[in-house]
Amino acid sequence: MIKNLCILVFALAFLSCNPHEEPKANTGLPYFDLKGYFGKEIMRLKKAKPKVNKTVSINGVEENKSLQINDWDKELAIFIDADINKNSWKGSFKTNRKDDIITYTSDNKKIPVKKISVTEKSSKISRIEIIINQKNILFQSHDTLIYLPDQLYQIKKKQKIRFLSTKNYAVIASFNP
Fold first, then answer.
1. The model's pTM
2. Contacts of 172 (CB under 8 A, 6+ apart)
């Protein structure tokens, strides 16, 4: 009995010494890498420190300021949050390429991001547009996000909370030359 146990321990020790290849993570993303793109943009904007003319509007009441953004991570977080490369969303988006525009669309009710359009000219991104719709028993929201590198970014939100009036929010920031 002790002899059989020793042989078993020896065999297990021997097998555990065999080199084996670890499974590699799948680094290929099925859709446009929104998170990676805006991560690079944030780093670039932090270095460049551009000034922007920013207009914030709530139900038509506007406030306009010229300022330098100190926290680009926070400023562009809504764009990063719209990333569609989540494991649970694989296969949920249709991809359509027409000329310089690639569009990802989903009609899945559980996925709030409904559309992402990426326009590329001369191997550079010239425009990103994102449509987000959320709806439940108490709340409805429709967001339109637009980003034009070194030109402007725009966030428009229409929000309806049950028993309250509809609110319209807008942030439009244009980069100073």
1. 0.81
2. 54, 55, 57, 152, 153, 154, 155
